[in-house]
Write a structure and sequence with these properties.
Structural class: alpha/beta
Strand order of the largest sheet: 9-8-7-10-6-1-4-5-11
Number of strands: 11
Number of helices: 6
CATH architecture: 3-Layer(aba) Sandwich
CATH topology: Rossmann fold
Largest sheet: 9 strands, mixed
Distance between the termini: 58 Å
Oligomer: single chain
């Protein structure tokens, strides 16, 4: 079985600058981390491999799109257990919305697998976008079945059985390969990277592809140029560290708190 896990490096801080012209996040040089939701996707892949009759027959590939620094997050996937990792990195990918992102990823999948894969696993969403759309759109780009909000997974030789959270009901369904799933948070307990694997693989385990490497790709569908949606306005939330300190008896403290809540119309 060939499994691809799509991951993303997201900002590791809330102090993120926004390009005033394009409305996209300035990621270059920004401290990053592996998207937390993607940890559950990775662990799902590892669990499928470990439960297989022949674990050695299951190959796990991590795939991401981002600036060069995203290599560090991809290395983390290898240290956790991925067999290989690929990064799509090119200025022409920058500023992509969900449609342009899913198109680029679909071209990356075709490039590294030759169209021969069994399962793609994505995290439910990313912490910097929260759209939860890239996974399903990637499935549409590839023309394969998909299921979102997956809670549990059981893999067999010819199909995948999953339970899906549909808010009002929990649905169990089967899908034939190839297919794609997006995994809910808390679907499992992600493992930590292995120092032994880090020592064995080193820092050269990630392969980088540019737009030129993706033969047959329509450049007009990449990056900001290929994004049909635009961010009209984006801004960081306001923060304040102002506070009021009350001293006195329990009754006086309660009265002070009540007066503040009432003045601010919380009561």
């Amino acid at each position: 079985m060939d499994i691809i896990v799509c991951v993303k490096q997201v900002p590791g801080t809330t102090a993120v600058e926004v390009d005033p012209v394009t409305g996209v996040l300035k990621r270059d040089g920004l401290a990053g981390k592996l998207n937390p939701y993607d940890l559950f996707a990775l662990e799902t892949a590892f669990s499928i491999r470990e439960s297989a009759e022949d674990p050695d027959s299951v190959r796990i590939t991590a795939l991401s799109m981002g600036p060069g620094q995203a290599v560090q997050s991809l290395l983390e996937t290898v240290y956790m257990g991925a067999d290989e990792a690929w990064l799509l990195s090119d200025r022409r990918f920058a500023g992509a919305d969900v449609q342009a992102t899913s198109y680029a990823l679909s071209r990356g999948v075709e490039k590294i697998t030759g169209g021969k894969f069994d399962l793609i696993i994505c995290g439910k969403q990313t912490t910097d976008g929260d759209t939860a759309q890239v996974g399903p759109e990637l499935a549409e780009q590839l023309g394969i079945e998909h299921a979102a909000n997956v809670m549990t997974v059981r893999a067999s030789e010819d199909c995948l059985t999953v339970t899906v959270n549909l808010d009002d009901v929990i649905q169990t369904q089967k899908m034939r390969y190839p297919c794609l799933i997006t995994v809910e948070k808390d679907a499992n307990t992600p493992r930590l990277p292995s120092f032994r694997r880090k020592f064995a693989t080193g820092d050269g385990a990630v392969k980088v592809l540019t737009a030129d490497d993706l033969e047959g790709t329509d450049a007009g569908r990449l990056g900001l140029k290929g994004s049909p949606t635009r961010v009209e306005r984006i801004f960081p939330p306001e923060s304040s560290d102002s506070r009021e300190l009350f001293e006195g008896t329990s009754a006086e403290l309660a009265e002070g708190l009540y007066s503040v809540l009432k003045s601010r119309k919380f009561l």
